[in-house]
Backbone:
DNA sequence: CATCCCAAAGTTGTCTGACAACTTGAGGTA
DNA sequence: TACCTCAAGTTGTCAGACAACTTTGGGATG
């Protein structure tokens, strides 16, 4: 635990986050005052305040001028889409056992939408990883991942197996900073149906996701077909708070 | 513009956010140094730093110790689900004209799932608002909103018309602090199909959302059936950044 | 006795100044 | 040319002070 290289305010925020999620402070209760909490943690009040600012932005805390800092009882979601994670994590979060079948890596020309995301010409060869993900043996997700072949070639992809693409990219110094997922309802094509062992026309929820580094460079594009109802896909939505025009 | 009551750091953050989205600083470029920018804005460096912390948490900026603060070229999403907004905003964000037809308010017993979200017994009477939302005349969303009848009675709901439920609740001192949306693919029932003027069995994307106050009290439950393809539904997903176990 | 008012204590918000930690680039040196 | 060193510039953290706001409780008032 603990990434030593990050700044102090992030370490404090992580520390407090863990305590909050461990239920050390009950929902709605008031935290110790800033000077007191800062003394307890052995940091300055300004660093503590920075950390609290982060947690407030996450919706875990709420500060009230002159009154105190309070714990909001934010529901803890098993799988909050606003956090970026892989399919394996999603499956594991529901208590099932993640697995992979029918993995196949290749070098293929980029389809138009994928090429557009990468900002390259359609047809440029890319490394591609096709997988069918299982949850305790049941086939639930068909995924396709595209990636520049300079970064990961097909043999490296097929060596991944169950591992996370994010970890592989991070090891190359290309940590994924954020992704943008576009969600749409679809029905299973003949091929997808066959791979997922369901009837053609079955309801799916499809995520098209573009992952980028902190510099905005697109390093990974994914297409995931989820069996409808296999997971509960949720999003924590901040706001609107007080309405501006009033 | 400008919500006068919020704290200075939020006003600064909003100011900077607008400038960033207006493209004043190009993606990847470095911001002026903190002391300089603070002078320009007429605020102290500490307040400016708090504001930057907020924008960094949002993924708009990235600070590098000793080097500078840089603009992340985060794609600007028309409709980021991790922000909570109403259907009208969603429609307006795509440049279309939001409207409402077939609005109908009533007092109805709570279905099981809605009652569960409110933490009340199924069958308890609630105020309900049924609407069909239009985008430049086209029927695109069927929505149902449930709410405690002590907070808003059916007559108040029907008086809303096109207005935002969030604004109405905020006026009652019950500002919505966050919501949790669950997303699933569905097909149109006979009734929904008739109301949306599409064929039964048409693909829909359905959002079941529970909105709460800062204290965690559930004040609004909504069910929205969106016509597939009517909007591009996207989520900005933070992380994973550097992988912990490395 | 009930009610209102107000002052004091406690809390978060902001400011100022200073120094530490780190990065970058220019210049000198081999 | 290649490498090293150092100075300048940047963000990170600290400390202390005061402002702004909320809450509480006691005292004056009816």
Residues:
């Amino acid at each position: 635990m603990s990434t030593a290289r990050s700044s102090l305010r992030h370490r404090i925020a992580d520390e407090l986050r863990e305590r909050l999620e461990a239920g050390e402070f009950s929902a709605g209760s008031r935290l110790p005052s800033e000077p007191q909490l800062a003394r307890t943690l052995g940091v300055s009040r300004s660093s503590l305040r920075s950390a609290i600012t982060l947690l407030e932005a996450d919706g875990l805390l709420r500060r009230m001028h002159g009154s105190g800092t309070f714990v909001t009882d934010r529901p803890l979601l098993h799988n909050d889409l606003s956090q970026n994670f892989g399919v394996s994590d999603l499956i594991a979060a529901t208590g099932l056992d993640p697995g992979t079948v029918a993995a196949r890596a290749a070098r293929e020309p980029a389809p138009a939408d994928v090429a557009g995301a990468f900002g390259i010409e359609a047809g440029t060869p890319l490394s591609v990883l096709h997988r069918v993900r299982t949850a305790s043996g049941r086939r639930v997700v068909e995924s396709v991942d595209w990636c520049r072949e300079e970064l990961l070639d097909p043999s490296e992809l097929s060596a991944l197996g169950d591992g996370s693409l994010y970890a592989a990219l991070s090891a190359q110094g290309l940590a994924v900073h954020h992704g943008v997922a576009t969600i749409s309802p679809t029905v299973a094509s003949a091929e997808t149906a066959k791979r997922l062992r369901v009837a053609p026309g079955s309801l799916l929820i499809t995520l098209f996701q573009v992952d980028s580094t902190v510099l905005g460079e697109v390093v990974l594009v994914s297409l995931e077909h989820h069996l409808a109802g296999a997971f509960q896909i949720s999003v924590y939505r901040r706001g609107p708070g007080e309405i501006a025009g009033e």
